[in-house]
Amino acid sequence: MAIISIPSSTTMFPMPQQVSRQNREVVVAEEIGRARMLTINRPNHLNYLSGETALTLGHNFEKYENDANADFVIIKGAGRTFSAGGDLHMFYEGRNTRDSCLEGTYRMYWLCYHIHTYKKPHIALVHGMSVGGGASLMAPMKFSVVTEKAFSSTPEINIGFHPDCGFSYMLPRLPGRLGEYLGLTGEKLRGKEVVAAGLATHFVPSQKLFQLEKRLLSIKSGDEDTIRSVINEFSSNIHIDERSVLNKLSIINECFSKDSVEEIIESFEAEGSRKGNDWILAVLKSLKKASPTALKITLRSIREGRTQTISECLRREFRISMNIQRAITSGDFYEGIRAQIIDKDKSPKWNPSTLDKVHDDQLDLIFKPFEDHDLELQIPINEEEYRWRGKYENSSYSRLRGSVLV
To answer: Which residues are in the Enoyl-CoA hydratase/isomerase domain (predicted)?
Structure first.
């Protein structure tokens, strides 16, 4: 749910004709042979994910999974970016109305569950930004293709939020303590780094991406080996620059395995004082500017996610997200959006202002299960328990619409 400006060097690749005609649909759905193509279609708004976008994507993923004529699904973004994640203006505008964005949040989490447990092959074609909630649509795909112009991050700590939409499940499953590093620092991975880290499956040069898309659309079946073979034809080998953070894993593993955010920063500072570790200084500066509450929430969430299933992680993340939106211990989320997106002064006033003022009892309130179990995210604990019955329309929130709760 973060926003990062698109570099001026980003280039555009061809779009479907109906998208380039400024189609007003937030998602363009196409049925082409045995393939189904979903294009996030808000190119003038960085393909932000609104509640309507999540609803439309979820509806189509469900439809295609049950369609005997659909063998696989492709998802991409219109224009120069994949997706900048959640629409932060929407959250800020609703800050004074209790649970104004609850429905959109609920639908986004169900969409993530759909994607993680999908029964047919799905493919993400990622060019440009894939950030926060946008990255949550890329990383779980059976096949996720990135170009040299692609970059990915989970920078939610900079707006007083936490890496959500399944990232507390995905981040701790990256190599070593890379997940803690990415979650706590919000640092970007670019192009081949995204593949090398395990957040994408293939690297394809941007000039070949449209050709790959055309070839995929011509496939006559959803056989995974056939899809993989086609993507491999266009893929390039991965060679990581020696300056990449992925070549610093020994330092990252040592520092980001510590028990607390305070200990992580102290250890990282010690490493930064050593010769040849100048790269740490800029990361430390960013780390120290983040919301203290968000940092502690993020570390605890990632650590809990290390031993949990995707369903357990999504349930917990939904709970955290709703409690942050309700500002039960801190208004950092809205202050972060104000500073980064609304006023753009880049000077948020966090409350509490320092890590030592963020206490465990405050965190416990954010992580605490809802007293009414029916208000939890209703997704299966066991995948085969049920498939689609837990959607927003069937939730207690929908039934309580109009009451004091919502």
So the answer is: 36-367
Q: Does the annotation count 87 as an active-site position?
A: no
CA gap 328, 323 in Å, rounded: 6
Q: Which of 65, 164, 213, 332 is catalytic?
A: 164
> What is the value of pTM for the model shown?
0.91
94 belongs to the catalytic site: no
Instruction: Locate 120 and state its tokens.
Output: 């047919």
Q: Tell the residue number behind the tokens 């960085």, with chain if given.
A: 46
Write down the residue that tokens 């060019």 correspond to. 127
86 is catalytic: yes
| Tokens matching residue 1 | 């749910």
Residue 405 corresponds to which tokens in the numbers above? 């709760």
pLDDT digits (tens, 9 = 90+) for 279-317: 999 999 999 999 999 999 999 999 999 999 999 999 999
Q: Determine the Cα–Cα distance for residues 388 and 62; give it in Å rounded to an integer.
A: 8
Radius of gyration of the chain (CA): 21
Residue 383 is encoded by which pair of tokens? 């995948």
Residue 164 annotated to the active site: yes
Q: 315, 376 in Cβ contact below 8 A?
A: yes
**Which of the residues 65, 71, 87, 156 is marked catalytic?**
156
Q: Which of 77, 133, 336, 390 is catalytic?
A: 133
Distance separating the N- and C-terminal Cα atoms of the chain: 22
Pairing of strands 129-131, 72-77: unpaired
- 79, 86, 132, 166: which one is catalytic? 86
Q: Which two tokens stand for residue 192?
A: 């081949």
As a whole number of angstroms, the distance between CA 67 and CA 50 comes to 26
DSSP state of 351: S
* CB-based contacts of 315, cutoff 8 Å, min separation 6: 376, 377, 379
Decide: 82 and 134 in contact? Cβ < 8 Å.
yes
Q: Which residues of the chain have pLDDT under 70?
A: 1-23, 383-387, 401-406
Tens digits of residue pLDDT in 210-229: 999 999 999 999 999 999 99
